[in-house]
Structure formats: structure tokens, C-alpha cells
Amino acid sequence: MESFLTFCRGPLLLLAFSVFFLGAARQVALTFVELGRAYRRAGDQAVNLKFIFKRSLGWIIPVNGLRGTRWVYTAASVVFHAGMLLVPLFLAGHIELIRKGVGLAWPSLGPGAADALTLATMAALLALFVLRVASRASRFLSTFQDWFLLALCMAAFLTGYGVAHPLANPLPFTFVYIVHLLSAELLLVLVPFSKLGHVILFPLTRASWEMGWHFVPGAGDRIRIALGKEGEPV
Amino acid sequence: MVPEQPHVQEVTKGKGAPQGAAPPGKQGSGAKLLPHQIMGLSYYMERLYPGDKVRRFLEIFAAVLQHSNYAQLVDTYARVGAKCANCATSCQIYLATKDPKDIPCYRTNLLLEIYRRHFTFRGVLQSKLTGTVYLTEERIRELAESVYHCTGCRRCSFECPMGMDHGLITHLSRYILAEMDITPKALVVATREQLEGKSGNTSAIPVPALLDTLEFLQDDIKDEKGIDVSFPIDQEGREFVFFPAVSDYLLEAETLKGIAVTFHAAGETDRWTIGTGYFDGINYGLFYSDWCAERIIQKEIGETMRLKGKKILIGECGHASRSAKLFVPTFGGGKDALPVMNIMEVTVDMLRRGKLKLNPDVIKERVTYHDPCNIARTGWIVDQPREILRSFCKNYVDMEPKGAKNYCCGGGGGTVSIDEIRSYRTKVTGKVKADQIRATGAHYVVAPCANCKKQLREVCEDNGLADVEVVGLHDLIYKAIVL
Ligand code: SF4
Ligand code: SF4
After folding, report:
1. I want to staple B69 with a disulfide (CB 3.0 to 4.6 A). Which of A38, A61, A202, B192 is the partner?
2. Which residue has the higher pLDDT, A179 or A65?
3. 3-state DSSP call for residue B19?
4. CB–CB of B351/B387 below 8 Å?
């Protein structure tokens, strides 16, 4: 058990980070290459940067969402995303681990704030789950990964809390710790390969959208030639 | 799968309710299939690609991805979809049906899933390992039905945290389908006449008939207003060459008279002209085919150049305005392309310069304004018409929501031309709009768009709003203008 824990904390964690970073880099690079190609081929190269920024920022600062009909969902989603970003990055334990590993360190959240944020994130996760179940629309849309990723996040946070509060935790500490590491590592690995990809691609989805409307002159003809439909009438 | 007859031409036209398509397999072997029953779709089609449809679909998809800019878009979208259902309640179709298959994300996912399963490493591997082919004729049929239920209004794009533009995916899906001849007959026939027919426009109006119409309109103005107002024809070097939805020449006399009188009253008749070489603003390419869109836009550009005009001026038509605004730069030389303006931009400018006098005592009834999606969604034309209307309509009220977040009339994306689905358009996609109109209590609904006008008239007719009059903006100006 202990040696498996060491394995999870050492090589496996390193592997997870590598997959995450390499996968992320690959996606960013590919997306930029594709965007560049789209830009060069576009008949109209005036790109509406304001639109891209406005529409992206609108979701990072979701004023409208909080005023809309799904404000509970938006609120839960904001809390969840904030927790998802802040807790892994600013928890004292995590920073310590990174300092030992690569020698980098930065200020951490105080234990009180970390606990509050963790609990809030879990509450938000629960709310997201309930809302997904309760709404016919999202129940219908949801696939396996939508449920699985929710569960995985919950597992990571719940066990994280258990690791931080060993006294309140009824299960064997090592076991909880291992589950925490495994679920967190799986999340990292899945980022480039699932809808979690938005972690990396979020700032670029609007750029893709904008470039999607930048059509390529002559493409229509080339497509018809490729399909052997040259000269065919409408 | 219905055994199809690829080139059936006869159409027994059913007005009103959609003809219930015969369920697959229920067709007597000797019975002649109506064109719309090909694939069991709710709209008429002329023909269908006779070979292996699944293979053809994938060939076309591949060619489109290779030669256009959609690949990067589809790839990004296929990765990030959150399935959060935020978009559901923003779509007038889902609001009316509450059918989960009408959720925008579901529709978009029909195409994205084909992409994932046939064009990504993982998808191809999965097929190889399981020995299955994801795409089937049934899936093509579902897509073909679904993307002509969506009006491409893009209202849902505001609600997606992932930046999904379902209108764009609908457009792409329709384009792929169009290359295998799955397109409502109404759209194809009009576009064919425009690109390859003798008249060169979607309503098949020959030039002599156009000239007759214009003369008739001039006489009308003379009778009604007592003045001589001319429609300038083939004048060179004018600021604007004018392209309305060509159907306006047949159906919207008041709008055209209003526009001519506006130029006249401002003393600026020498700013515009109508060209007899080409005079149609309609571009159904925006709805289903980039190939057609490009060829149609070249006709607009060509006519403007022929007349040495400086700008392309589009009449009261949403999709004509947007397609010109979007495609003239795209297919006409980027930043060097001819500028495109909508008629309301010109009129509001005249008003601001004090060139127009509108009598505030003429329009006493309550007036409301419907924002055509194609000009309002980006915020391009939202305030201009309101500024004009408020200046002379005392009893003006807005709908809620309005402007960029308006609801579609329910006939966008070319669906208004599909008569077979009228009851779908008026009872389902147009239901929210009918409720909005009813709530305003307005007598006049101003809808400066040829598509919206036709659709809204039918919506009002079918939803017990017989007292409502659907008009163009310049129709009211025509009534109130002081000459
Ligand atoms: S584009 Fe309009 S009609 Fe189509 S799914 Fe979105 S809101 Fe609905
Ligand atoms: S809002 Fe976007 S991510 Fe959410 S369900 Fe709709 S399309 Fe999918």
C-alpha cells in the first residue's frame, strides 16, 4: 500500500503531468496552426477581435448568466470553476509537493480559506449534478463522460478533504490518499482527451467560431471538382 | 428506407398542413412516390443522389473539410461540447415543442458525432475495432430533417459557454446535404432560376415586367401623393445600386414606393439606381450552399461595377443584407470590396440630417418592431429603425426580448419558402413570436424583411391575430411622409 502510494505520488504523478502538458501543448499548437491556415485562406481577413474577446469575457465574468433564467446553474458553475482552478493551485499541500518536485513555490491559501473553498466547490458540484438530473434537457443530452467527469471531480475533492482532515476521515488514510491521487491524475490525463479540453481551448473557441464564418473564395468550385461534379447545373 | 425514385418531377402540392410522409416501408410497391417522400422528409425534394448515400455523404464531408475553413471549427467544437443544456431555453423551437431532439446542442451534435466517428483517430479506431459503421441512411435522414427545422437564427449562440454557433453548424450541415441533392425544392428551384435561368432572378421576373412594375408604382405614387417620383434605372456612377429581395417587386409595392419617396423627399434621388442587368438581393446560398452564395454575390458585385456604382444598397431584407455584408468582402476582395449598406441606414441618416419630415399624426395605431435575425443578431441594425419609428409613431412599443436577442419570426434560414411545412412554421417555430406580438397589442408589426413579412403574416393568420397588419418600415414612412 505504502509503496503504491509512493508510486502514485512519484512516477505516476509525473506521467499525468506530462500527458497533460504535452497534450495541452499539442492542442494549442494544432489549433493555432489551423486558425492561421484559415486566416490565410479567408477571402476577408478582417477579424473581429472585439467580438472574440467580448464573447469570451462574457463567460468568464458571467453577469448576464447570473441575470438569466438559469442563474442557479450559472452560479453553481462559477463557484465550481473557481474552486477547480484555485484549490489545486493554491493549496499549501500541493505547493509543497511541487516545491519538492521541481523547486517552484508560490503563496498558498490559508487552511480556513482552503477548507471553505473546498466545501463550496463540493456543494457546487452537487448542485450541478442535481441540476443535470432534474432538467429533462440536460438529462437527455448527457452522455457517459458528462456523468463520469462529475463523479471524478467529486471523488478528487472529497478525498482531498479527507487527506487534509485525517481525523474526520473514517476510512484508512493511505487508501483515501491513493484515491485522491488517482482521481486527480486521471482528471489531468483526461483534459486533452475529453470535453475537459475546454480548459485549454476555451480562449480559442471563439476564435474558431469567428474564423468559421470567414469563407474561402473558390472553395465551392474546388469541392465540386473534388466530387466530380464540375460543370453540373444547380 | 423508402425505395426512392431519384428524378420524379411531378409535385402534387399540398397547401397548409405538412403532408405526412409515408412511414418507410409502408409504401405500396406500385405507388408513385411524391418527391418529398424521398427519405421520408417533411419537405419536397426533386431528386436524390442515386448511389451509396452514406459513402457519398462522407466523401462530401471530407471534401468540404479539406477545401473550406470549417475543419478547424468542427474540430474545436467536437472537443469542447459541454452538454450543459444552456442553449435549450433560448431556442424558440424547443420552447414550443419541449422535445429534447430540438435542443440546439443535440442538433449540432448530429454532425459533430459523424465527424468524431469518421474523421478523428479515435473514431476511426473505434470503428475498426468494433467493425461498425456509425453513419447510416437513417442518421442522414435525421440530420436532413433536423437542420431544416432549425431556422439558423443563431439566438442560441448567446447562451453557449463553449461558443458554439449552431446556426453555422446548421449551415454547414445543409451545405454537405446540398451537395448530395438533399435540399428543399423551393430553395433549389429559385436559386437555379437565379443562376442559370433566363430571368436571372429568384422570382423569374423578366426585365420588361420589372420596368412595367416600376412604371405602375410611379403611377400609383402620382395618384396617391400627387407627385412625380421616379425609380432611377440603369444610371451610371450613382452612390448606390439597389438590390431588394426581388419578390418585393411582386409583393411589397408599399415598401418600394416608400423607399422611392424617401429619396425623393430628401432631394437625393440622384444617389441611387436600380440595374436592369441584375436586381435581386436574395441569396439562398447563405442558407444552404457556399458554392451558390459565391456565384450569386458575384452577380451583385458585377452589376454594381457595370453601373460604376460605389456601394451595394440592400432593401428591406434581412438575409439579403447579411449575405451581402458577409459575402461581398469574402468573395469580392476583402478590404477593397465594395461597401454594403442596408436601406434603413440610409434613411436614418437622412432623418438625422433633417432631410425627412414625417407627420406624427398619421399613424395612430400601436406599432411594434420585429428584429430580423440576420441584421439584428450582431447588433448591426437595431437602433436605426427604432429611431425612425419613434420619430413619428406616437404609440410605439417594443417586444421583449428584442434587438440582438430577439426571437426569430420562425421562418428564417429559407424555411419560409417551404410551403409544405407552413403549419410547422406557424404553430411551432412561430409560436413564441405570435405570443410576443399578442403581448404588445400592436396593430402594426414592422418587419423590414421579405422573409419575415411573409412568415409573420402567416403566423398571425394561423394564430388568431387577424387584426395585426405586418408591414415594412418604409410602408409606414410612405403613409406619413410630408412632401
Ligand atoms: S439557430 Fe435558432 S432555430 Fe436554430 S437551434 Fe439556434 S435558436 Fe433554435
Ligand atoms: S449551451 Fe453549448 S455546451 Fe451547452 S448544451 Fe448548448 S451547445 Fe452544448
Report:
1. A38
2. A179
3. coil
4. yes
Å between B255 CA and nearest CA of chain A: 31
Instruction: Identify which of B323, B274, B294 has the alpha carbon closest to the alpha carbon of residue B195.
Output: B294
Q: Which residues of chain B are under the pLDDT cut of 70?
A: 1-34
Q: Whose CA is nearest to atom 7 of ligand 1?
A: B91
* Domain boundaries defined on chain B: 53-183, 201-350, 357-480
What pLDDT shows up at residue B101? 94
> Are B95 and B214 contacting, i.e. CB atoms less than 8 angstroms apart?
no
DSSP state letter for B378: T
Contact B232, B270 (CB under 8 A): yes
pLDDT in tens, A54-81: 888 888 887 777 777 788 898 999 999 9
Domain ranges of chain A: 2-38+47-227
d(CA B136, CA B121): 20
pLDDT per residue as tens digits for the range A24-51:
999 999 999 999 999 999 999 999 998 8
8-state DSSP, B31: S
Q: Is it the case that residue A210 has pLDDT exceeding 70?
A: yes
Task: Tell me the β-bridge partners of B299.
Answer: none
Distance A73 CA to ligand 2 centre (A): 13
Buried b (16+ CB within 10 A) or exposed e, A203-221: ebbbbbbbbbbbbbbebbe
A54 has a chain B CB within 8 A of its CB: no
Residue B290: list chain A partners with CB under 8 A.
Answer: 215, 219-220
Question: Smallest Cα–Cα separation from B38: which of B1, B78, B77?
Answer: B1
The CATH architecture annotation of domain A2-38+47-227 reads Up-down Bundle (1.20)
Dihedral Cα B432, B437, B438, B439, nearest 10 deg: 90
> Which H helix or E strand runs over B397?
strand B396-397
Determine the CATH number of domain B53-183. 1.10.1060
| Alpha carbon distance B282, B314 (integer Å) | 10
Which residue is associated with the grid cell 404609440? B395
B357-480: CATH topology is Rossmann fold (3.40.50)
Reading phi first (left if > 0) and then psi (alpha if -120 to 50, else beta), residue B24 is in beta
pLDDT tens per residue across span A75-134: 999 999 999 999 999 999 899 988 888 888 999 998 899 999 999 999 999 999 999 999
